[in-house]
Amino acid sequence: MSYYIGTSPEAVINGFIKRYFYGLRRNDDGELFLVRVDQLRGAGSVVINDIGIGENNFIDFEEGIDFLEGVNIDHDIVYENLRYTQMKWDGRLLTYYIDPVDGQFIARISEDYTYPDNISGPGY
Q1: Average model confidence (pLDDT) for the chain?
Q2: Entry pTM
Q3: Among the listed residues 41, 20, 32, the one whose alpha carbon sits nearest the alpha carbon of residue 94
Q4: What residues contact 25, with CB distance under 8 A and at least 6 apart?
Q5: Which residues have CB under 8 Å from 99's CB, separation 6+?
């Protein structure tokens, strides 16, 4: 058994409030893209702003702060260079998928999802 003065490694990992970064975007064809980065793995990077005119950049990016207002009330993009119009930080591992039966966008907490073979439905 190990003893620690202060915080144990397990407590640090369990208390890491904003471990995962999730970015959601839609392209011009309506396809959804999701990126997930685990900060504890120390690998991977995320492009926040695409190349373009500086005044079209999203400059208020801050680690740990969610951003869900990348489009206005008419669903027009607010920041032209912003790659992900919705960003979320979470301490839980979330798996997002489209349900093949009813086409709903689903989030699973700490659980993977494997699409069945030969699927067809409203989402396909």
Answers
A1: 81
A2: 0.70
A3: 20
A4: 32, 33, 83, 84, 85, 86
A5: 105, 106, 121, 123
